[in-house]
Amino acid sequence: MEYLHAIATRFRATAPVADYWSLRLVSEETEHLAVRQGVTEPSALGSSLGAMLTLVQGGGIGYGATSDLSPAGLAAAWARAAGWAERHARLGLFGADRYPRSSLRADYASPVAEPWETLSLVDKLDLLHEACAALEIDPRIVDSSAWLGRRLVRQLLVTSDGGEVSHLSDQVSSGLMAVANAGSQTQTRTGGGADWGGQGGLERLAQVGFRADAQRVATEALALLDAPECPAGTRDLLLMPSQMILQIHESIGHPLELDRILGDERNYAGTSFVTPDMFGSYRYGSDLLNVTFDPRVPGELASAVADDEGTPAERQYLIRKGLLERPQGGRLSQARAGLPGVASARASAWDRPPIDRMANLNLEPGRDSLADLIARVERGVLMDTNRSWSIDDSRNKFQFGCELGRLIEDGELKGLVRNPGYRGISANFWRSLAGVGDASTREVRGVYTCGKGEPNQSIQVGHASPPALFRAVEVFGGGE
Question: Average pLDDT in the 76-85 region?
Answer without folding.
Answer: 97
